[in-house]
Design brief:
The chain has about 280 residues and is mainly β. It is built from 3 helices and 10 strands; from the N terminus they run αββββββββββαα.
C-alpha cells in the first residue's frame, strides 16, 4: 500500500536515532565500559555477530541512556510543519527518548510531546485528538524501533513496519562522534537521511532530511541532552503540565496518528507508577 504524501513527515522523522529518536538507564541495561577502553572497529574476521557487544564502540556508549530534547520539524517549503491530521505545533516541541544497548542490539522507545495549536489558528473544522480542545490541549505520540548488529564494525540495521510496508533501516558509525541513520522504501529509494553528532559531553544534535519519490518532504533539527532515569520522568511530567496534555492522551497515539493501544508502562517497559 503506497504511503499517502501527507503521511510522510510522520514517518520516523522523530526518531530515530535514531537509533534516530533514541535511549536508556534502567537496572537491566548493560554497564557502559570506560571510554578509554572503547574501540572504534573490530577487524577479527571470525567475529560472532550474534554475541557481539555494541558497547565496545564509543558512539553506542554515548547513545546508551535517557535523552530529553527540543525539536523542530520543517515542511517541504522550509517553514514549520503544519498537519490537519495532527493539529499541534511542530515549531518547538519536546522529545523523551530511552535507548538501551543490550549485547548486539539496540531497543529504542520514544514519546514526543507537542504544544497546543495556537488558538487563533483553530476554527470549526479543526478538532484536537482525544478529549482535548484545539488551542488549549497539547498531545503526544510514541515511537518504537529495534536494530541489531549487521557486522563487526558497530553498524546495525532492522526492519520498520509502517502503513502495511516493511522499511529497511540502517545505522552506520562514522568515527567516535558521528552516526548516520538511513531509512529506505521497499524499492530501495531513500526516505530519510539522519545525521547524529555526539560530542563527549552528554549532548547530541540530530538533523534529518525526508524524501518521497526523490523530492524533499521535511527537515528536522533536534537538540538533546542525556539525563538520569529519575530526571527523565520528572521532566516528562513537567512537559505534560506545560503543554496541558490530558492524562487520557499519555502515550496515546502512534507515529501514524492512530491510537497506540498501549500504556506508557508497556511502551517503556517500566513501572512508571513508582516514579
Amino acid at each position: 500500500m503506497p504511503i499517502p504524501h501527507y503521511f510522510i513527515p510522520t514517518l520516523l522523522c522523530c526518531s530515530v536515532f535514531i537509533l534516530s529518536g533514541c535511549n536508556d538507564d534502567n537496572t537491566n541495561s548493560t554497564p557502559i565500559p570506560e571510554e578509554s577502553d572503547s574501540v572504534l572497529a573490530v577487524t577479527d574476521d571470525n567475529c560472532d555477530v550474534d554475541n557481539f557487544q555494541l558497547l565496545d564502540f564509543t558512539p553506542w556508549q554515548r547513545e546508551n541512556g535517557y535523552w530529553v530534547g527540543e525539536y523542530t520539524l520543517l515542511g517541504a517549503d522550509g517553514t514549520p510543519q503544519v498537519s490537519s491530521r495532527w493539529p499541534y505545533r511542530y515549531d518547538n516541541y519536546k522529545g523523551f527518548i530511552h535507548l538501551e544497548v543490550i549485547g548486539n542490539a539496540i531497543k529504542q522507545r520514544n514519546v514526543f510531546l507537542y504544544p497546543p495549536k495556537l488558538a487563533e489558528l483553530c476554527d470549526a473544522t479543526t478538532e484536537a485528538l482525544g478529549n482535548g480542545l484545539c488551542g488549549i490541549n497539547g498531545n503526544e505520540k510514541i515511537f518504537s524501533a529495534d536494530q541489531k548488529a549487521t557486522d563487526c564494525s558497530g553498524n546495525i540495521s532492522g526492519p520498520f513496519e509502517s502503513f502495511g510496508m516493511t522499511l529497511d533501516t540502517n545505522t552506520t558509525l562514522i568515527g567516535d562522534d558521528t552516526v548516520l541513520y538511513q531509512v529506505r522504501m521497499p524499492d530501495g529509494s531513500i526516505m530519510q537521511n539522519q545525521l547524529t553528532t555526539l560530542p563527549p559531553n552528554d549532548t547530541r544534535v540530530r538533523t534529518a532530511q525526508g524524501f518521497f519519490n526523490g523530492n524533499p518532504t521535511y527537515a528536522s533539527y533536534y537538540r538533546e541532552r542525556k539525563v538520569t532515569q529519575e530526571e527523565f520522568f520528572q521532566l516528562l511530567t513537567a512537559a505534560r503540565v506545560e503543554y496541558n496534555i490530558l492524562e487520557t492522551d499519555h502515550c496515546g497515539y502512534d507515529n501514524t496518528n492512530q491510537p497506540s493501544q498501549t500504556t506508557c508502562d508497556e511502551h517503556f517497559g517500566l513501572d512508571l507508577s513508582a516514579e
